[in-house]
Fold this sequence. Notes:
The protein has helices at 2-32, 40-86, 88-101, 110-117, 121-145, 149-157, 162-196, 205-214, 218-246, 248-257. By secondary structure, it is mainly α. The chain has a single domain, classed as Orthogonal Bundle (MetI-like fold), CATH 1.10.3720. α2 (40-86) runs antiparallel to α7. The longest helix has 47 residues, at 40-86. The protein is globular and about 70 Å long. It starts with a helix and ends with a helix. The model has no long low-confidence stretch (mean pLDDT 85).
Amino acid sequence: MKIYRSSWKKHFKTIYANLIVLTMWYVLHASLKSAVIPSPFDTIENFIIIFPKVLLPHLLVSLWRITVAVIFSLILGVIIGVWIGVNKKADDFISPIVYILYPLPKIAFLPILMILWGLGDIPKIALIIIIVIFQIILGARDGVKEIPKELMMSVKSLGLARSQVYRHLILPAILPKLFTALRLSIGVSIAVLFFAENFATSYGIGYFIMNSWSMVNYLEMFSGIVGLGLLGFILFTVIDLCEDKLCRWVKVGKNTLI
């Protein structure tokens, strides 16, 4: 019963949010009376028509770039973050470097990446990696550092192997922070990818939107924006589902507090 209510609340919130956005969009369209802001109903109709053959290939390419970048960021970020979390000397050496590089606007590295690796997918994927990885490193490091020393000592006193300590203590401790880091970085990654896909490419949702804009086809431009929003919604939903599956104790704790 509780699961049904929770699922219903999620669906209700999604419908409610969509209705608010569509209402604001329609009010803006009706008040401006300009082709620059097409009707949301016309846009949705056009989106449905062009989605299978036109929009879907662009969305899949963008999704592939983000997915590859996130996988590499998770692997490298978790390894580095856990290492500096358990090793004070490594933390003293690496964390200051992370603090210097993390605030820099990563989009500034795109010309350098394009010079190093050409005009294909690699610089775009690399750009997303250097955005996501810092969040992952800091999330993993902080998750390790927040483990109580008493708990760490009690686990070691049981005679567990190092691999067992990582599996049963450290990994569960850092998972919630990793999902939070992913949420924070995915939104920025989509925005940066939108910009990066305007250079030397013919596929990607960013390219489609800007190409439609240059062709003064505002209906297709807004259809692309709807597709971009759909891509972000899917990614955030996948993250939420993975968190619900892998971090069940966090949800149980929240329900207990409530």
